[in-house]
Structures are given as structure tokens and as C-alpha cells.
Amino acid sequence: MQAAVVTGPGRVEIQTVARPLPAAGQVRVRLEGCGVCASNLTPWAGPEWMEFPTAPGGLGHEGWGVVDAVGDDVAGVAVGDRVSALFYNSYAGYDVGPASSVVRLPAELDLQAFPGEPLGCAMNIFRRSDIRAGQSVAIIGVGFLGAILTRLAAEAGARVIAISRRDYALQAARRMGAAETIPMLDHYQIIEQVRELTGGAMCERVIEAVGKQWPLDLAGELTAERGRLVIAGYHQDGPRQVNMQLWNWRGLDVVNAHERDPKVYVDGIRAAVEAVTSGRLDASPLYTHRFPLHRLDEALNMTRDRPDDFMKALVTM
């Protein structure tokens, strides 16, 4: 099979390697595609702790495709099933992993891309945000994740205030149901605009979906007394400081909405399948760029640089 191998910072080779074989309890998936995740960008940049080369297909964890082989002791998944796979070497033609880490895709999703991991991540964040009809919800950062959360919150009956630096992202937020959009330019101006929009009450729910210090600072300021601040951004580039005085005074509930239990991830993917098939969610307009596997480097660089018309890249096999 063909597999991408990251050989150094910003360098990738497409190599021909043996197809992996499923062990007991595992399945092999012939991949149709894999989403490109922003979490790939730190290892792609080559920090000191990163070891090169990666395993064949390494970094790819948003794959979908068709089961083509099963190991012993596998039940509930069969050859020919089209699935979303929470495996971790999916920048390749094939990947293997536990049968418990795949979710079957119904016929309604035939021919549709389905990067289950980020969709499931959004569903889990939404669940932990406890968003209800009538609430004011600020979403800071409208990339793929923020746009999905905008749609879910608006569909739940909340009034969504979307905050992002790119005009293209704010347009996407409006299409996904945001009632208000604010350019992410000036810290104090944003606070005053949200104060005006909420009659001084601020937001019962605030979701920080950027992963940087300033948006985290801003999120605390926008959260109402006894509100819930949900940290969905990927904060992996260093320590953070928080305004504990503010958090304490307002009595905020602060939720780190990242999951590590594979079962919870898979539950989120199942919820995403239901949301898409029921019509609650249509993520297809957010898949703005597609690349063949041999152009994975371009996909990663575009995910890093985020040009005006970019929301999410998919790699197709």
C-alpha cells in the first residue's frame, strides 16, 4: 500500500509498505479518506520531543472507508461494512485497529466523506456544554470545530454569538446559524459588544475553540455569573495563565471538554452519525479543500496557514 511517512519537520514521503494485518479483535479498513487535524501541526513543525520518521500513515486519525479484513474474535463488524475508524495511522491506503473503534455508516451516508473523530469530538463538546434553548452562547474561534458547535447550539435554540478573526469564518458561522458575529480584533471592544448584546448579563455558555492565551482570557470575560466556560481549544504549545480572581468571583463552572477514553470518542462518533442522518447537522460545506495523499504536505501547510477560503482539508486515497 501507499503510506505517508513524515521524515522530519515539514517533510513527508509517500512510501510503498506492506498492508497491516488485523490481529485478534481488530479490523482492517481500506481507507477512502482522512481528515487533517490541527493537532497534527505541532508534530509537523518538529518540536524537540518529536521522533522521526513516523510510522507509515502516522498522525492520521480521522479516517473512513470499508472494512476489508477482520481478525479473530470480531463480532458486529463484517467485511464490506463502510465505517468511520478511530485509528491512528490513517494517512495511508489501509489502517488497522480495534473493532470497538469503528462505527458503521448507514446507507444514507454512502459516497459522503465522514471524518468521524472531529465530528464526534464536536458532539462530545456540545454534550458537556449543556446548552439549552434561550441561552446566549459565545463561541470563540470559528474553524471547523467552532462552526459545527455553532450549528448544534443554534439548532438547540440558543442565541449564538460567533467570534473569529477571519471574515470568511464569520460568514460560515452565519450560515451555520449564528445570530451575531463579531470580528476578533480588539479585546475590550468585543467585551463591550457582548455586554450590549446581552443587556449586561454576558453569556451563560462560552466555548473557547482556538487554543491560545488571548482567546482563553477573553472567554472568561464573556462568561456570565454562574455560567459555564468550556475549553475546547487544543492548548498543547505551552502552559497557560488564567484569571482565577475573575473565575472565582463569578463562580464559573470550567469544563475541559477534551476526551481521552476511546469509548467516549466512539460514542461521540455515533452521535455525529445520528445528527447528520437526521438532518440536524450538515458538515459538507465545511470540507473546503481536498488533496490526494501525495499532497499531504500541502494539506498540512494549508491547515497551518488558513487562507481566507479554508475551513477543513481532507486527504483522499
TrEMBL record:
<dbReference type="GO" id="GO:0016616">
    <property type="term" value="F:oxidoreductase activity, acting on the CH-OH group of donors, NAD or NADP as acceptor"/>
</dbReference>
<dbReference type="InterPro" id="IPR013149">
    <property type="entry name" value="ADH-like_C"/>
</dbReference>
<dbReference type="InterPro" id="IPR013154">
    <property type="entry name" value="ADH-like_N"/>
</dbReference>
<keyword id="KW-0479">Metal-binding</keyword>
<keyword id="KW-0560">Oxidoreductase</keyword>
<protein>
    <submittedName>
        <fullName>Threonine dehydrogenase-like Zn-dependent dehydrogenase</fullName>
    </submittedName>
</protein>
<comment type="similarity">
    <text>Belongs to the zinc-containing alcohol dehydrogenase family.</text>
</comment>
<dbReference type="InterPro" id="IPR020843">
    <property type="entry name" value="ER"/>
</dbReference>
<dbReference type="InterPro" id="IPR050129">
    <property type="entry name" value="Zn_alcohol_dh"/>
</dbReference>
<dbReference type="Pfam" id="PF08240">
    <property type="entry name" value="ADH_N"/>
</dbReference>
<keyword id="KW-0862">Zinc</keyword>
<dbReference type="GO" id="GO:0008270">
    <property type="term" value="F:zinc ion binding"/>
</dbReference>
<dbReference type="Pfam" id="PF00107">
    <property type="entry name" value="ADH_zinc_N"/>
</dbReference>
<dbReference type="InterPro" id="IPR036291">
    <property type="entry name" value="NAD(P)-bd_dom_sf"/>
</dbReference>
<dbReference type="InterPro" id="IPR011032">
    <property type="entry name" value="GroES-like_sf"/>
</dbReference>
<feature type="domain" description="Enoyl reductase (ER)">
    <location>
        <begin position="10"/>
        <end position="315"/>
    </location>
</feature>
<dbReference type="InterPro" id="IPR002328">
    <property type="entry name" value="ADH_Zn_CS"/>
</dbReference>
